[in-house]
Amino acid sequence: MSTQPIIVSASPHVHSDRTSKKLMYDVVIALIPAFIVSIYVFGIGALIVTSVAVISCLLFEYLIQKYLLKTAVTITDGSALITGILLAFNLPSNLPVWMIIVGSLVAIGVAKSSFGGLGFNVFNPALVGRVFLLVSFPVQMTLWPTAIVNNSTVVDAVTGATPLGVIKEGLQYGETITQMSTKIPSIIDMLLGFTGGSLGEMSALALLIGGIFLIVRKVISWHIPVIMLATIMLMTGIYWFIDPEHYANPLIHILSGGAILGAFFMATDLVTSPMTKKGMVIFAIGIGIITVVIRLFGAYPEGVSFAILIMNAFVPLINKYFKPRRFGSKIKAKIV
Amino acid sequence: MLKTFPKGGIHPPENKITSTKSIKRMPTPKVVYVPISQHIGIPAEITVNVKDKVEIGQVIAKSSGFVSSNIHSPVSGTVTKLDKIIDTSGYKKQCIVIRTDIKDESNFEDIEYPLKKDISLEPKDILQKINESGIVGLGGATFPSHVKLSIKEGAKLDCLIINGVECEPYLTADHRLMLEKAEEIIVGIKILMFALHIDKAIIGIENNKKDAIEVFKNLIINEKSIKVAALKVKYPQGGEKQLVRAILNREVPKNGLPLDVGVIVHNVGTIFAIYQAIQHNKPLTERVVTVTGKKLENASNYWVKIGTPIKDLVDEVGGLPEGTRKIVNGGPMMGKAIKNMDVPVTKGTSGILVIHEDEASRGEQKNCIRCGECVDVCPMGLEPHLLMNLTEKGKYDDASNEDIMTCIECGSCSFVCPSHRPLLDYIRFGKHIVKKLNTAKN
Amino acid sequence: MTNSVLYSVLLLSSLGGIAAIILYVVSKKFYVYENPLIGEVEDILPSANCGGCGSPGCKAFAEKLVNYEDISSLFCPVGGNEAMKLISVALGKEVAEKDPTVAVVRCQGSCDVRPKTTEYQGPKSCAISAMIYSGETDCQFGCLGDGDCVSVCKFDAMFMDESTGLPIIITDKCTSCGACVDACPRNIIEMRPRHKKDLKIFVGCLNEDKGGIAKKACEVACIGCSKCEDICPKGAVTMADNLAYIDPVTCTLCRKCVDVCPTHSIIETNFPPRKVKKVETEVKANIESVKLNADA
Questions:
Q1: Which of A4, A5, A10 has its CB closest to that of C122?
Q2: Judgement on whether residues B274 and B150 belong to the same structural domain of the protein
Q3: Angle, to 10 degrees, between the axis of helix B123-132 and the axis of helix B182-196?
């Protein structure tokens, strides 16, 4: 017999081999395709933004846990890493470094640590950081560098707006969608990622590959992304069907403006999404509706971030009112 | 499509290492330690004194109430002590220590009774006999069987379900019993059907025991009233409520019993014990125990006398392997880790699991990341993360309102939690307190 | 410009006025009469809301004190006799007088004398580990060492000694509210009278096992040898289930039992170091002063 005393603990005595760390690193792996595309499209800028965001997120997490909260340091669990990557993916690739650092501080310090750290934050930290930067520095945050590689010939050489931005602006000047058609990148370009936008949000294809990887690995369930995208498509589809001259094609809505990134990676954030499948459906529909409302009738051309943050606030309520059905709760059994 | 219960459930690695090992007879130990509380309910009353000679099958502790059970001597020998020793509960409990009489041949004889099919007793006598024979639920819950079978006048009962699911990983005791004693089990089922006036019985077996399903299917070709249901492999299908839902699609109401939907569920081991008691007048003094573990060389299934110290069992399979850090009485999902090797086998011991240090330690507890896995796998539709949280904060009333008492303690939530949170530990504690508060209220 | 200023001033002040009227009406309409004595008594009470009196808080206790005819069964252990006397004056009712008590830990099974035979893994809570089994050592009566008592103490009067794994009570801070007594699943903590200079003698063991088994599990266990019972001149020691218990009322703190205990399981606290002969007189003096105290 071994020299160490035997262990006594309560059942169960076995555990599945899934750990929260593995879940986190699965998400990191799923983000790699989109990261590669962004480097290909935006070049060194993408790399700089991402590494600055990741390093500063990890650093802030370490400093806060070690010196402010004086708790165990858990930067290796991968959650700060994901926050960093997701924050970077939501920023233009030419954003000044100090702004990225400020964004990271808000994401980790305000959105995460002040709520109690991993698992206690109400709002998605990366999105809080992004929205903070967007409202503080609207000019820098909405001037997107053009893709280095670009099949379309239309886009302004130095800075360009996102497709949805172009449409919104065009509509304000009274142009119709057909008149603008030359300014909007093709669906194929948007699918592959050769368009303006934040560095991680443009390549729908790469994000889809990552998203499907996550669903296959059962890190996320299909409910939130599928239902959220379906809601956006349905609502924009109805408007497009009624008036195609003033409302863009639903495919444009799905493929641009971070809808895919939001659907697969931000809305599905385990901590800030509902626990039950029923709740997830409500949550996803809510995000879809708010996104479309902001995009079509709001001041911002894109609304995924705001929509997710707004629905994050409803998660505790959703958890409270959409509980799983208790076994045996229909008292009238089938036998009479 | 195989039947199963719809909500929740997990599929832990099966590790049924001993499923091909036929049941051997464990040599009679020199000393047996027979606890007087081997069942749920009131402990039995000791009826023997120190230095008394006892025979195999003699009552040594008498049932002391309705929810209680007789205890019979598993060996012939002399009572040496009435002592307190640590049992599975982890506490010292009263037990009867009997030194085996080595001269007595019957201690070592391998008694094999011939199959006896005719039922000679009347229904009333059958129930009485089951009560006298000290039979309890051998699936692990150890609820006295006669209590389960005492059906109130007017209760509608139309189906007997035989639980041959054995959804716990590692354990194969029921599986081997079904293979080796199938005919006896069929007779046992008929006895119960006769005693309870039911004309329908279904044997539920998970699909990882295809051979057992086959054996029973061949045996019941000419039987109209008995059926075999092959079930999808999913834990915790062996739970009564889940099994009834899986086989009959009936949902036992909250805080109710299978009887409320006209069903009674018995484990195959219990059925075999009933067969032996009724047909061969043999009380419950031994049971099948799976002795298993990944590092154990001769893991196998044994007929073991009640009261045999676990040490003897482990020695029989070649002693504890190097690096053993945990010994579990029962299966890995619901069994109890024991404190030392002197703990005796009781009526509820379905297996002894020896766990190597690689797998013995719990993972480090992390923050809940609210992934909702526990909610997904809970077969009772509860929210384990919430119940743990409420218990931790001492909000027992809220926990009670969240149906903490309906938890069947299957451990699926703790099994899947990626943050290694001790969900079930807290829920069990919460249940304990809520139960205490409820009794205080009444 | 002036208009908008005017409008907003008007609007806000009228809103304020309406709100004031509503508040006034509501406060008149829903006014609940409360006996002013309750507030007065509550001020005397220590506002610790510890629950030591059996009521959920000081306010509830004050209500009880004011409303009940006979309050001799009620006592605030935190405020002690002083507070109760003030309450007696305020309410004009008879109050009970109790000797001040203090919590003591009746287990000495530190890591070095009570070897660990198993390792417990699970939530760090005595109540939960007690549900699973009898603890990491072979003694099923002693301290589990997970500190439930420390976490319920509202007065910071307890802490876990890392070196021994046992809780320690800071007697100066202990208010004898009894929270730790209730929290301990092993009933190790007992309220004993707080003698002068905090002198206490008690059996630091609860092991009911037979001597040999108890001693094997823990070096300082009470083995039930009855030597203390035999030597006690006042008959304060009683034996039950292989265990000695010293009755705090009859004990005169003579320390004879401490000397005869073969396993040193009887604890004495705050006595001056023993000096040959001289001790006797000092103890006598102490006892006398205690007696005087009690008489007064």
A1: A10
A2: yes
A3: 120
Contact B381 A325 (CB under 8 A): yes
Compare all CA atoms of chain B with the CA of A272 and give the residue at the minimum distance.
B370
- Between chains, do A326 and B415 touch, taking CB under 8 Å as contact? no
Same domain, B136 and B186: yes
Q: Which residue of C has its CA nearest to B85?
A: C209
Alpha-carbon gap, residue B270 to B286, rounded angstroms: 12
B335 vs B259: CA distance, rounded Å: 26
- CB–CB of C133 and B425 under 8 A? no
Determine how many CB atoms are found less than 10 A away from the CB of residue C229.
Answer: 18
Cβ contact A331–B254 (<8 Å)? yes
Taking the C-alpha atoms of residue B14 and residue B201, their distance in angstroms, rounded to an integer, is: 27
Are B189 and B233 within one domain? yes
A60/B392 Cα distance (integer angstroms): 30
Using alpha carbons, select from A116, A92, A91 the residue that is nearest to residue A104.
A91
Predicted local distance difference test score (pLDDT) of residue A249 = 85
Q: Does residue B202 sit in the same domain as residue B264?
A: yes
Mean pLDDT on A5-31:
91
pLDDT of residue A333: 44
| Stretch(es) of chain C classified as CATH 3.30.70.20 | 101-285
- The alpha-carbon gap from B167 to the nearest alpha carbon of chain A, in Å, equals 14
Select the CATH number that applies to the domain covering C101-285 from these four: 3.40.50.300, 3.30.70.20, 3.40.50.10490, 2.60.40.420: 3.30.70.20
**C269 vs B426: which has the higher pLDDT:** B426
- The per-residue pLDDT for A155 is 42
B15: closest chain A residue by CA: A14
Neighbours of C181 (CB within 10 A): 17
Third-level CATH fold of C36-91: 3-methyladenine DNA Glycosylase II; Chain A, domain 3 (1.10.15)
Q: What is the pLDDT of residue C177?
A: 86
The answer on B316 and B265 residing in a single domain is no
ipTM score? 0.87
A179 contacts: CB under 8 Å, gap ≥ 6: A170
Which of the residue ranges B124-128, B417-421, C274-278 has the most confident prediction, judged by mean pLDDT?
B417-421
Reported as a single tens digit per residue, the pLDDT across C91-126 is 888 888 888 888 999 999 888 888 888 999 989 999
Is B107 within the bounds of a domain? no
Q: What is the pLDDT of residue A152?
A: 44
Tell me if C118 and A9 make a contact (CB, 8 A cut-off): no
In this structure, the answer to whether residues B415 and B330 fall within a common structural domain is: no
Instruction: Note whether B403 contacts A4, CB cutoff 8 Å.
Output: no
Is residue B204 domain-shared with residue B244, that is, in the same domain? yes
Note whether residue B239 is domain-resident: yes
- Average of pLDDT values for B336-340? 90
- Total Cβ atoms within 10 A of residue A285: 17
Query: Residue B130 belongs to what domain range?
Result: 123-280
In a domain, B364, yes or no: no
Domain CATH for B70: 3.10.20.600
Residue A157: pLDDT band by 50, 70, 90 thresholds? very low
B362/A327 Cβ within 8 A: no
Q: B134 and B269 share a domain? A: yes
pLDDT > 90 in chain C, percent: 22
**Which residue matches tokens 């599990």?**
C217
Asked if A157 is an interface residue toward chain C (Cβ–Cβ < 8 A), one would say no
Asked if B86 and B37 touch (Cβ cutoff 8 Å), the reply is no
Query: Does A174 touch chain B if contact means CB atoms closer than 8 Å?
Result: no
C122 neighbourhood in chain B, CB within 8 Å: 362, 422, 425
Which residues in chain B are closer than 8 Å to C134, comparing Cβ atoms? 86, 90-92, 339
Q: Compute the distance between CA of residue B237 and CA of residue C120 in angstroms, rounded to an integer.
A: 30
- Among B235, B253, B280, the domain boundary falls at B280
Chains that touch A (3 or more CB pairs under 8 A): B, C
Residue B158 lies in a domain: yes
By CA distance, what is C117's nearest residue in B? B339
H/E element, C118: strand C118-121
Domains of chain B: total:
3
